[in-house]
Design goal:
465 residues; alpha+beta; two-stranded antiparallel sheet; 7 strands; 65% helix; elongated
Length: 465
Amino acid sequence: LVLHQGALDAVVDGWPGVAARWCAVLVCWLAAWRARFARVEIVLIAAAMTAQSSGDTLIGVQAFRGVTVPFLSVADVGYVVFYAAMLISVLLTGRRELAGTASSAWLDILVGSLGASSVLAVALVPVWAPVVTAPTLSDRVVAVAYPLLDLFLVAATAGIAVARGPRARTGKGWLAVGMAFYAGTDVLYALQRTAGTYVPGRLLDVGWVVALAMIALSADRAARPHVVVHAEHRDPTTRWSALAVSTAATAAAVAVLVLGTRTTVSSLAVTLAAGTLVTATIRTLVAYRRLALMAHLRRLESTTDPLTGLANRRALVAEAHLRFNRHGATSRALLLLDLDKFKEVNDALGHHAGDQLLIEVADRMRHHRRPGDVVARLGGDEFAVLLEHTDRTQALVVANELCAALAERVSVGGEELTPGVSIGVAVFPADGDDLSALLRKADVAMYQAKVTGGGCRLYDAATVG
């Protein structure tokens, strides 16, 4: 191979450097073998590493023989295959490990990718500038192909940084760092080549060796058994890291646009930066909508009975407080219901059958509810109905209708049952001016109804005591 002055030259461009590259290739193929070649993304990494190392070795052998290596050679095929295989591997890994992930996570990945690409597009302006003046079409293609491939590589790397979790054992962390090293070394090489300052065998060439070693390590770790963690179940550290990356990408895009107002910036860089800000705005709207939905669900959870879907005691108290303190309040009534012999149903048929009975009772009460009435489950087999614009006579009529509806036969746990119910009725404001008072009075009336064999009973102060 080409001999350069100094120990570093001999190591990097000599046989040790070639051996290091092919050792990395061997590690990748061993990882694919351990995974029984069932993991396509690992096989693609191994193929990419083989293609890249083959290109490097071919150029080295030609240089050793004293053959002038053309600007566009067979080795470039290996380099292009490396880029293509690595990008496909990243996409397959993302599709497998982020399956079912929330749209917000994908937007985070897109923001990170676009932001990183916009910064790189600014850095690569000196590389793309000579494209217009390149002597042949092939020279122009090569001049623009590698910077674009590096652009895609950086975008994929940023996406990995957003998607991965710091505790994940899938090798994505090493892959992200390795690809970043490779792209960064490529960009520096392109800039130095454009400026005419590149010298083979120097410290810059070590970057490719380090990058290949990290990518090989990622393949080795990916072949180990691990648990896939979807974005919805990532730990808080992972979510904060995703937020940090997407925030940094957004800030970078803003910096690119500000730079464009002071100096000439490529159209590609401006487009990528604008795309970053648009995507970040969409991500913010999605986050706001999700937070609003979560707040709504929490309110529902705090005011809804999880078994029957009816309002719970807390919701009934809040609604009664609003109605009883409303100006111009009219007569209202409270029905308190308790199923007869519900414990016997639980003991004989099991708690699942008891839950089925409660759900059926709730459905019937919901069906017979009038507009404006509030139906709630207070707990166990106890229910309440707050009737709007109802006097004592009307309340008793509603209670009897409800009692008849609940007494219809129902199939529970493979058995036909005829539910029995006791209903106590208290009227606002005659029997009490708040919910607590009405509940006490209705409970007394319900107990009197239960003692006499069930049915409906109005609260009567004269019969108490």
